[in-house]
Amino acid sequence: MAAFFKGRRIDLIISLKDFCEMSDEMSDETSESYYDWFEPLYAQANGDATQVPWSLPTATAYLTHWLSKNKVQGAGRSAVVVGCGLGDDAEALAAAGFVVTAFDVSPSAVAWAQERFPKSSVNYTVADVFQLPDDWLAAFDLVFDFRTIQALPLSVRTDVITQIASLVKPGGIVLIATYARESEGAFEGPPWPLSAQELAQFESYGLVAVVKETLHNAESRFADRILIQYQAPL
Asked: Cα dist. 146→8, 19, 118, 170, 227 in Å?
């Protein structure tokens, strides 16, 4: 994958078209190639968030609305943020009282988050969602994912859902915010929105969908977005 980026310059703003073209060139690579391009992107962004196509200026509204609506108190509870990027979602959970672990496959993203929040209580760390540390399994009261699953191709979807579901403690919560698609067939990404059948894979691990909110934005390429709260059995 290093060869893919050799001699290339990431423009100030990467268009969705350019992003898709990068993915097309990687489509025949090994499974690891589906995500090892994140590090060159973050590294070459060199501290400029406008070069990270999915970067938001603050924590995602899906998470902050959920925290506010449910008056969530995280004191004495643990949370993990999957694919934490620049750290805003992790900081929102820490502000709610959670003891937060936030991981990303990109060392540059993790270092960037640490630089942005130098006094943070969040444990920012480099980790691979496909090779999670053993002591993370069934270790967290709250597992939050926004955009990680949909950023990975359909061929590894079952694997990534399995890994994310494995993080939650008995009785804990898995909170997923994602684009949604109606068709169960192949989809040209990235990103690759989740189908109802794919989301149901969480329930195959005993998780129960207790809240499901669908948001519709007709002006977006991906009109439907879903926030689902799954409860793990005790």
From this structure: 28, 18, 23, 22, 9
Highest mean pLDDT among 115-124, 172-181, 220-229: 115-124
- 61-231 CATH, one of 3.10.20.90, 3.40.50.1370, 3.40.50.150, 3.90.950.10: 3.40.50.150
What tokens does 147 get?
A: 């955009």
Domain boundaries, the chain: 2-51, 61-231
Whole-angstrom distance, CA of residue 183 vs CA of residue 196: 9
- pLDDT tens sequence across 132-143: 999 999 999 999
Sign of CA dihedral 162, 167, 173, 177: negative
